[in-house]
Amino acid sequence: MTIARVIVDVPAIGTDKEFDYAIPEKWREMIQPGMRVAVPFGPRIIQGFVIGLKDTTDVPRLKSISKPLDMTPVLNKELLRLGEWIAEQTLSFKITSFHAMLPAAMKAKYKKVIRKTDHMKLISLDDLFGGKQEIDWKEAEKRNLLPDLHKEINKGNAEVIYLVKDRAKTKKMKIVQPAVPHHELRVAADELPKNAVNQIKLLQYIHAAQEESFEAGDLAARAEVPRQTIAALVKKGILSETEEDVYRDPYKHKHFQRTTPLPLTAQQQEAIRPILETIETNIHQTFMLFGVTGSGKTEVYLQSIHEVIKKGEEAIVLVPEIALTPQMVERFKGRFGSDVAVLHSRLSIGEQYDEWRKIQKKEVKVVVGARSAVFAPFENLGIIIIDEEHETSYKQEETPRYHARDVAIERAKYHQCPVVLGSATPSLESFARAQKGVYQLLTLSKRMNEKQLPSVAIVDMREEMRSGNRSMFSKELFEKLKDRLAKREQTVLFLNRRGHSTFLMCRDCGFVMQCPHCDITLTFHRYSNEMKCHYCGFQTEAPQTCPDCASSHIRYFGTGTQKVEEELSKLLPEARVIRMDVDTTGRKGAHERLLDHFQAGRADILLGTQMIAKGLDFPNITLVGVLSADTMLHLPDFRAAEKTFQLLTQVSGRAGRHELSGEVVIQTYSPEHYSIQLAGKQDYDRFYRQEMAMRKLGSYPPFYYLALITVQHEDLMKVISVTEKISNYMKARISQDAILLGPVASPIPRINDRYRYQCLIKYKREPNLFPALKKVLEHYQTKLSKEGLSISIDVNPYMMI
Ligand code: ADP
Ligand code: ZN
Ligand code: ZN
């Protein structure tokens, strides 16, 4: 075909459509949908995605594609279609959605080379490659070699590699191979001087080995010769040595104990049967696997995947970023070994790319990863599993604002395969769907080995205060801490970071230090003695006296993990404490190291934020303390109660998962709140009913869908007037059944010197809504983007502030 349909890389409303380009004769064989190409656009040459081919167009003066940027499609048909679907659902641009599906390494700024895939037999490629193992893309382009190289790539003789400069991370392997035909090795050995014992030995070894290539160190060891022997024979032209990238496998140094499927309990069997049926019969169905922590959900995942692999199909497992601990990875690597690729944001760009390549080259069957792993380019998907499905990190908070759950279901429909949503505390949205029969509910109500859930005590911190205890630990928690220290058992102390930080307040005048650019309180960082804004990055030295009244009675309030750590070292100097928060886990691998430490019993107390709430499964933890359960309750977010319930249930589940039974102490200033009461009883069903009643009362999800429009600009008056215009425009276009709230100032009214106003639309069925929202974007994008006005629309928002 002669014409390509191209989506160009200009993320704007006016260019969010396909453009036709002629395919020059010499590229006709090559260019396919899913490849990127360079095209002339206005005065520039830019990148674009080919989404389809055709033979006719009504564009009068057709421009031509300048050159291809890929040799094989980077997005297959399914993913191209998915990208368009995401763009529609999230009101974002197609080009933005396509980019979101690709690993960062494939952005244009990285250098590409074309590399031979084989070491021996491709003498025929020597002309093309000039005798080298690889050739620079730019050079190939200049010498007009791309069409020929493309043929070799299609035959599997060569591949395109993106070179990502991860400093000191690219690992090279030295590959040795004979430089002469195999039968001549004997002759060469005979011709060597008799005293070149090692060289003769090496050649004889290679001749006998019947292998085409060797890793240098390995070869030397096997032939029992020093490395220099190889070098000597390379110099004589009998052997050749080349360098090759090896996959930078971040889990390489870990040994994963192989595991085999466990005989399932009756409950597990009942839960897995419907899943296996859909796998067998290739039907799409979404399952809600509702099971308390430790009820054996993961084993159900593993055995479902096992069936999928047996059928020759592939599996995606999504876990929240912070739950992607070595422990979690170990369970999948342990069962499926090198069939597993792992994708998460702590990997370098190069490492992520390596894992992605394994998927694309069909070298793995299973991907375990965070949100974006839902885009793994598998072509025979047999199952998608989303563990901890209630986690808000499955929603991407930048464009395209997709939710991995929706994307997973869309992909599973295409592949006619099941989706399994697993959780001990399902999101209200998902559980409501399960209740209505949209999802099929599967329940695991018992913990393995009939282990009792830990006993939970709720401590009223106001009472503690009244009885004269001013410490951050209640008497009960402190006694239990001492008890565990004496018994040499481990404790997890959890501090809710959300809505909770250390701030500075003057005791005389009540002055609280705020960010000069945002309407938010500055956070005190003790080690650097600085005040920092967590929204815009502003920082300044902490003052000694009140900036307002000059009083010296300026104090730091609130509780940070650092402060808890200090308090612990005062009260329990003998306790060995590991603190885990953003400060101590910033460096790569730190997270894993700290956990290894704790697991090895080199600490008594693990103190941390959200990141310790998930996935920990250590036998010696018998006490969990929650220092302040209610900090999140008062955030301006309709999900505050749900999040509090989920977090407390999750944290409590860390205790007593094994032989020793566990206890949980929850400290709170609002002990009567139903989310705290019911988390203490681990009673999801009652929480669900109560919270559903609240949502109904407030017209919130799952009774209504939401669309949040946020307007930002430096000029407050402008923000207000634009938001008002948008509100009026929308009001006229939605039905009586929809509710429009606003315009009002956003919960954080100013960030980075830009004012923020919003309006929130609650709706059920509103066919005119999306077209109207699109019109709003279109209008303001073309008219006002130059003035620095920004408008964002978040469909089904999770960040309400
Ligand atoms: P969840 O994922 O629901 O938190 P897990 O799958 O981690 O639960 O199971 C909890 C513990 O029980 C794990 O140590 C797991 O190895 C074990 N387990 C799971 N299923 C079985 C089974 N059928 N027989 C024996 N032990 C099991
Ligand atoms: Zn700020
Ligand atoms: Zn003051």
From TrEMBL:
Zn(2+) 1 binds at C506, C509, C546, C549. Component of the replication restart primosome. This is Replication restart protein PriA. Residues 278-444 form the Helicase ATP-binding domain. Coiled coil: none annotated. It comes from Siminovitchia thermophila. Initiates the restart of stalled replication forks, which reloads the replicative helicase on sites other than the origin of replication. Recognizes and binds to abandoned replication forks and remodels them to uncover a helicase loading site. Promotes assembly of the primosome at these replication forks. It catalyses: ATP + H2O = ADP + phosphate + H(+); Couples ATP hydrolysis with the unwinding of duplex DNA by translocating in the 3'-5' direction. HAMAP family: PriA. Belongs to the helicase family. PriA subfamily.
